From TrEMBL:
It comes from Alkalibaculum sporogenes. It comes from the Bacteria. PANTHER family: DUF1836 DOMAIN-CONTAINING PROTEIN (PTHR40056:SF1), HYPOTHETICAL CYTOSOLIC PROTEIN (PTHR40056). This is DUF1836 domain-containing protein.
Length: 171
């Protein structure tokens, strides 16, 4: 099994990019996270849907910024767990938080991702040292933990949304 590669801020160009360039660079950055070689990391349709649903801002003169690339990378990693609506709540609350910008959020994302990645890569090595029966139990443990963590995140985001709605009604 291949090892997941560390995400680096330096992988994202400091220039605005056209859609085809965005897709190509995302494919390069996120390549090691594909489960199947045929998997599409990001398509033009996906990016357009993220723009339409206000997950990322509209491109300026058909070009996407470094910040939008950061958002797309985070969306790729979060969309397996969160719905588009939950992602919208997540980004809205993240950016409205005190002095948090998308750049700061992305740096936090990279730090947390790196910590979890080290643990995940170690777990993979340990799993392959176990017999099949033990691996099955470990897989079950991983899946149950992922399911519970997903539900925790979804419940917290639901509460955030309700608080936002209540606040906007009171104002």
């Amino acid at each position: 099994m291949k090892e997941f590669q560390k995400l680096k801020s330096s992988d994202i160009p400091h220039i605005d990019l056209y859609m085809d360039q965005v897709i190509t660079i995302l494919e390069q950055i996120i390549e090691s996270y594909k489960v199947d070689q045929d998997e599409k990391i990001m398509t033009k349709t996906m990016v357009n849907n993220y723009v339409k649903s206000n997950l990322i801002s509209k491109p300026i003169k058909k070009k996407y910024s470094r910040v939008q690339m950061m958002q797309l990378i985070m969306i790729y990693h979060l969309k397996g767990i969160l719905t588009l609506e939950e992602l919208e709540i997540f980004f809205k609350n993240s950016i409205n938080d005190c002095d948090n910008s998308l750049e700061n959020l992305y740096q936090d994302f990279l730090q947390i991702h790196e910590e979890e990645l080290e643990e995940a890569n170690l777990k993979v090595v340990q799993l392959y040292q176990k017999d099949k029966g033990q691996r099955i139990k470990e897989i079950m443990k991983i899946v149950i933990k992922a399911d519970l963590n997903k539900k925790i995140a979804q419940n917290i985001l639901k509460e955030m949304k309700e608080l936002d709605e209540n606040y906007s009604i009171d104002v």
